[in-house]
Amino acid sequence: MRSVTFFVLIFLISTLAFGQSRYRRVVAKRGDGVNTLLYRNGLSPSRHLRQFQQLNRANLTRRNGLIIGRTYLLPRPTPRAASSARTATASRAATSHGISTTPLLPAKLFGPAYSPVPVRDRALRGAVYYLSPGHAGPDPGAIGQYGTYKLAEDEYAYDVTIRLARVLMEHGATVYLMVQDPNDGIRDESVLKMDYDELTYPQQRIPLSQLGRLRQRMTQVNKLYARHKGAYQRLLSLHVDSRSAGQNIDVFFYHHQNSQAGLRLAKNIHKVFTARYKRAQPGRPYSGNVSIRSSLYEVRTSHAPAVFMELGNIRNSKDQRRFVVADNRQALANWIYEGLLADYTGR
Q1: Over 50: is that where the pLDDT of 329 sits?
Q2: Residues 138, 29: one domain?
Q3: Measuring CA to CA, which residue among 330, 341, 326 is closest to residue 164?
């Protein structure tokens, strides 16, 4: 009887080992979150997150986070994802950018870990987005103190914005990134190094004057708006606020008083954030709101319906966790995308 039991045990162990050997293995690095780990390995969090958690339950934290240095199993791509990968490979032979990028946002802009950008579906086909991260160039914007490090608004607003650009492109949207950094790409570090080499689309040096920067940016947006006349077009301006260090704030939204489309867009994104906070932090109500701020230059001068977003207080320690954790920056981008999708499909 013992020999039979021993044989069954060996069989189960070998079966389990064989099953696990069919999955790719990766080691979690500093700054990794589940979403960023999946993205870096060509997998979509929306399709593969649950399977990843099931495969790696024993190696995740209580909140399903990663542990630096641990080895994790990657889910196998779904047939649909595998089909997309085959299509992308075939398309690369026909064009230097492949199916996943356009001359508007070349693959190198996202950095090596996030290039190319796979087109997963065409849910946003026909939609045109102008993404405008706050400040940049000679103006880093608000500064927060994080231990011995300084956190610059423009670096974190840019990282969330370029992540959002990538997600929108995955779903077939036309995306213009109105501020572009030629060498940063999407970054997974906690502390994002400050630099001053950002450019205004398409390749313009950013002026020192605040009004000059905004005018330069919006001139380009409105030129492009005229080029895409008749299409669904929206402008999103992403910023990080600076308030007293003790003030913890949620993401909130501004729109123009005369723009019903801007109001609807803000409400659709706000609705997603409300639902996501309720799920992620059930004991804490979401206090972000939608309000009128017609005096904001981008909101006031944009020909496209516009929403101005404040992502948090860069001086507050709780809000800083929203920025310094790469997975949280990706979550912000994913939630904004969900609101944009709801607005586009419900128009």
Answers
A1: yes
A2: no
A3: 330
